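Intended use. Records like the one below are meant for learning the mapping from a protein sequence to its folded structure. Do not use them to infer anything beyond what is encoded.
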Amino acid sequence: MIFRLEGILGKARHSANFSRYFIREFGIAKKYYCYEIDDFFPPFYQLIDKYKIEIDQKYEKEKKGLIDLISKANRNELSFDDAYYGKRLEEVITYYEYKKDQNNIMAKDMAKKLANFKVESVTVGFPSQFRLSDLNKLENAIRDAENSLRSKHFTETEHSDTNEHSHIFANNGFILFDYILKHFISVKRGRIADLSFFFWKMHNEKHLHQRPKQFLEWFNQQYQEPIDKIRPYSEVDNIKREKLYSTAKEWLKDKKTDMRP
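Structure written out for the chain above:
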């Protein structure tokens, strides 16, 4: 899984437009693997966060290694293994080229390298070798792509509300109902009670402007279900459903604010 995600990140880094690349990849994932926005993007954020943590850890480890080498060089305690470690840090002095009276020169070279050793010097991932700046750019591109797709989805859903379902809903009612149906209405026991409660709440707040009979005709045709009644509000009202409805209304408010182009 990580290798597949890293491969996409690596290719995106070399594309002309990072955001457009991720939008295209999402389109492929949606078409062939039925991915939705909430399925596709979070793993990339998680992998980038993982790599950032690895960069911090690797940076601290490498910096400590340089400091230890400086200290050992000053104490004339460098070993073959230390010299090999220094060579991995791109030192040009090898174990066979310095003697005890040259250890301070080695320490000075190490100190110079330490002064120039920055987080941006560290890479993670195989084989992509991402730097921190790469990860930041990719993260911003992914967020831009996600926001663009969500904005497009919101606009399309809103358009369907005002046209295809306008004989049932108003004031972004279909968007709200679709969210409630997916998240808060039971799929088995209690489905009629849940549906009845949210029907009356939306009806009373002008998100839905049909009576129960017309609404159920639409609902059963739209979702291929045999719901035969809407129960009275007094029978289905409870604190739990009230809280869920408030949560849905807050979601709608935030979505209208954050996702518009």
